């Protein structure tokens, strides 16, 4: 059964190009993992962001789509609307990853991006039954090793909450088409409302954007209440906004935060190291989360 040294081996491997694992405090990571292992898998829950955390950021140098992008570049969207959505992406994505701006400075601009994009999407008479094809025709890609990750959690009945500011209907389809939408998976995200003919009319509930996952978590107290007996959390994200995803967990004991740092790595590394326990630099795989699960399984 895997020992901590085998996890460390994955953490410190230097044989793989473009892959690197950083930790602010490796000893604390080890202590946290040992506590989690001792407490057992029946005390664990996993909370993960979706876009660019469970999905790949890039492949062969080309960006992979977010759940928004999958819809935005699909046949369902008119070319005029596509152009407007692309302009929004070009304007706001650089702000999202700008390390010279604070979260407080970025927040209103991110709300503006989501609000404007969703207003455009709502005008497009999206058909629910066309989402399957949009995902099939996209380059959406879960990270290498996703099957092992999803299957392991399911096999051990560990709940996986996918908490996304993306498009819930689209991301669920990505997970379904990958064959890993197991019964232990729950999704909190922006879901569409459809009329009786299957045409989208609006979005359900409160908007989830990159910086209000804490509020989103607190709106879902029922989910976390059900998981009261699971105070240990493995959190996976790619944005500093993802760090609050576990804020709804009741009587939390240990939280291990794993951050995928995909873009503008040098500028953003200090803030990621400050806030995530483990930072994965340009790592397109689930190798580290899987090594951690292997370690936790072996109690
Ligand atoms: N119109 C938009 C708005 C946001 N995005 C990207 O979605 C990501 C958020 O989804 P998570 O699953 O990561 O919560 C965010 O990082 C934005 O870059 C987009 O592509 N289009
Ligand atoms: Mg993300």
Automatic annotation (TrEMBL):
It is found in: Cytoplasm. One of its GO terms (biological process) is nucleotide metabolic process. The keyword Magnesium applies. It is an enzyme of class 3 (hydrolase). Keywords: Cytoplasm, Hydrolase, Magnesium, Metal-binding, Nucleotide metabolism, Nucleotide-binding. Gene3D superfamilies: HAD superfamily/HAD-like (3.40.50.1000), Pyrimidine 5'-nucleotidase (UMPH-1), N-terminal domain (1.10.150.340). The keyword Nucleotide-binding applies. GO terms for cellular component: cytoplasm. Pfam families: UMPH-1. InterPro entries: HAD-like_sf, HAD_sf, Pyrimidine_nucleotidase_eu. GO terms for molecular function: 5'-nucleotidase activity; magnesium ion binding; nucleotide binding. Its EC number is 3.1.3.5. It comes from the Eukaryota. It catalyses: a ribonucleoside 5'-phosphate + H2O = a ribonucleoside + phosphate; CMP + H2O = cytidine + phosphate; N(7)-methyl-GMP + H2O = N(7)-methylguanosine + phosphate. Belongs to the pyrimidine 5'-nucleotidase family. PANTHER family: 5'-NUCLEOTIDASE, 7-METHYLGUANOSINE PHOSPHATE-SPECIFIC 5'-NUCLEOTIDASE. Specifically hydrolyzes 7-methylguanosine monophosphate (m(7)GMP) to 7-methylguanosine and inorganic phosphate. The specific activity for m(7)GMP may protect cells against undesired salvage of m(7)GMP and its incorporation into nucleic acids. Also has weak activity for CMP. UMP and purine nucleotides are poor substrates. NCBIfam families: HAD-SF-IE. Monomer. This is 5'-nucleotidase. It comes from Gadus morhua (Atlantic cod).
């Amino acid at each position: 059964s895997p020992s901590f040294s085998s996890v460390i081996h994955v953490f410190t491997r230097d044989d793989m190009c473009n892959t690197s694992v950083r930790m602010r405090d490796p000893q604390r990571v080890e202590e946290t993992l040992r506590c989690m292992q001792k407490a057992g898998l029946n005390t664990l829950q996993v909370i993960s962001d979706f876009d660019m955390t469970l999905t790949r950021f890039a492949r062969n140098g080309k960006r992979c789509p977010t759940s928004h992008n999958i819809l935005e570049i699909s046949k369902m969207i008119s070319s005029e609307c596509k152009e407007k959505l692309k302009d929004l992406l070009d304007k706001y994505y650089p702000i999202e990853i700008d390390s010279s701006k604070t979260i407080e400075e970025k927040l209103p601009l991110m709300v503006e991006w989501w609000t404007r994009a969703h207003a455009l999407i709502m005008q497009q008479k999206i058909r629910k039954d066309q989402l399957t094809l949009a995902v099939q025709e996209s380059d959406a890609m879960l990270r290498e090793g996703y099957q092992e990750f999803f299957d392991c959690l399911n096999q051990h009945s560990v709940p996986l909450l996918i908490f996304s500011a993306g498009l819930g209907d689209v991301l669920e389809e990505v997970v379904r088409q990958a064959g890993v939408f197991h019964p232990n998976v729950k999704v909190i995200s922006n879901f569409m409302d459809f009329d009786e003919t299957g045409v989208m009319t609006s979005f359900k509930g409160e908007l989830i954007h990159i910086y209000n996952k804490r509020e989103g978590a607190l709106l879902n107290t029922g989910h976390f209440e059900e998981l009261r007996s699971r105070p240990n959390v493995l959190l996976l994200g790619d944005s500093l906004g993802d760090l609050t995803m576990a804020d709804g967990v009741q009587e939390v004991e240990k939280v291990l935060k794993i951050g995928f740092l995909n873009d503008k790595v040098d500028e953003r590394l200090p803030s990621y190291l400050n806030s995530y326990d483990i930072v994965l630099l340009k790592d397109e795989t689930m190798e580290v989360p899987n090594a951690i699960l292997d370690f936790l399984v072996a109690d």
